[in-house]
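Consider the tokenized backbone below.
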């Protein structure tokens, strides 16, 4: 199947996004999501010292998980890319249709993306060991990430 997918990508003149672009997109997305949390809780955080902020954010783990899950699900479903991926000119595609993932693929991919992060980023590092640069969440959702520029 891997050869079939590589042939399909070549036929459609699509190139797999490299790992470094994906890392930059990841960092951009995390900065955006951190800014959202900062803006939402600015009034509360501005009155706290560093230890109180660390304690507060430590108790917000479920909130971070849900924020990331919703953000990545919606952007993947609606645009095939998060804001970070858009900035890096890369896109997530359903590997069978070579089109944006459907809602359930997007949700599953986002969920496994969060699990990959919780598992010491091992799911992301997995992309370094295969020709298609696929992470655990790409395998789970049957997606690939390609360059669009």
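A designed sequence for it:
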């Amino acid at each position: 199947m891997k050869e079939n997918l590589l042939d399909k990508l070549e036929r459609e003149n699509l190139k797999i996004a490299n790992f470094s672009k994906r890392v930059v997109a990841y960092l951009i997305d995390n900065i955006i999501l951190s800014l959202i949390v900062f803006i939402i809780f600015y009034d509360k955080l501005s009155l706290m010292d560093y230890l109180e902020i660390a304690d507060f954010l430590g108790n917000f783990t479920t909130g971070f998980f849900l924020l990331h899950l919703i953000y990545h699900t919606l952007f993947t479903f609606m645009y095939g890319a998060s804001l970070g991926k858009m900035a890096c000119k890369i896109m997530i595609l359903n590997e069978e249709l070579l089109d944006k993932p459907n809602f359930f693929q997007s949700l599953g991919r986002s969920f496994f993306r969060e699990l990959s992060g919780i598992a010491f980023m091992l799911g992301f590092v997995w992309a370094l060991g295969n020709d298609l640069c696929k992470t655990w969440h790409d395998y789970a959702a049957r997606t690939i990430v390609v360059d669009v520029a």
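The longest strand covers residues 90-94.
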